[in-house]
Design brief:
Elements (H helix, E strand, L loop, with lengths): L1 H7 L3 H9 L7 E3 L2 E3 L2 H15 L4 H12 L4 H5 L10 E3 L1 H7 L6 H10 L2 E4 L2 E4 L2 H12 L4 H26 L6 H29 L4
Antiparallel strand pairs: 1-2, 3-5, 4-5
Helix pairs in contact: 1-3, 4-7, 7-9, 9-10
Length: 209
């Protein structure tokens, strides 16, 4: 315990306090010996970084609980990584910086539930660089992250419906999933064009347009 506290730059008393507050996972025990590893050190450094950014211990505890109960990266990615998306690895403090302090336990839980986030040791994995960048850009525009995540759930539902529609259209008796993969860009083009025209219609209906 003394060695872990020294590496983390905290006192043993502080380490015991964090453990009592369940801010760090329990050590692996062999008899009376408690073994700490790099996961514990990473968590302690995360706690220090979040405290420096103004987070409270109670807020960090809630984040830690959501983090510990989130899906791991293997479950998040399923059988394989997305074919066209690039997962992004982030520390909890980096995630807090990306969303300007809006990485609350509630928002983290919503993102975990959506499948946007998973865990891999001491890191958080976001399923898509593009989705992460868009979400962060919307937050910078002043849109609350909670609203962005609510909208994302609606987008997910519509995207699933569109994927089902296109799959049903393509996968006739004479076509296979290879054909679906080959024709995938056509589906994306249709969705992009229809969304663009739908936005045009919304803009034209606004007063003064």
């Amino acid at each position: 315990m003394e060695e872990l506290a020294e590496e983390a730059g905290i006192t043993v008393r502080t380490l015991r306090f964090y453990r009592e507050r369940k801010l760090i996972p329990p050590p692996r025990r062999e008899g009376r010996i408690a073994w700490y590893d790099d996961t514990h050190l990473a968590r302690l450094r995360t706690i220090s970084a979040l405290l420096e950014r103004g987070h409270t211990l109670s807020g960090i505890a809630e984040l830690a609980e959501a983090f510990d109960h989130g899906r791991d990266v293997g479950e998040l990615l399923g059988l394989g990584e997305p074919t066209e998306e690039t997962p992004v690895r982030l520390s909890p403090e980096e995630l807090a910086d990306v969303f300007a302090g809006q990485a609350t336990p509630e928002n983290l839980a919503a993102a975990l539930d959506l499948g946007y986030l998973g865990t891999d040791g001491g890191e958080i994995v976001h399923i898509s660089r593009r989705l992460l960048d868009v979400s962060a850009a919307l937050v910078r525009e002043g849109i609350p992250l909670a609203d962005v995540l609510t909208a994302a759930r609606g987008v997910r539902d519509h995207a699933e419906a569109l994927a089902t529609l296109f799959t049903t259209l393509v996968l006739t008796e004479n076509r296979t999933t290879d054909d679906l993969t080959r024709l995938r860009p056509l589906a994306k083009s249709v969705v992009e064009a229809e969304l663009s025209m739908a936005l045009d219609r919304r803009l034209s209906r606004r007063p003064g347009a």
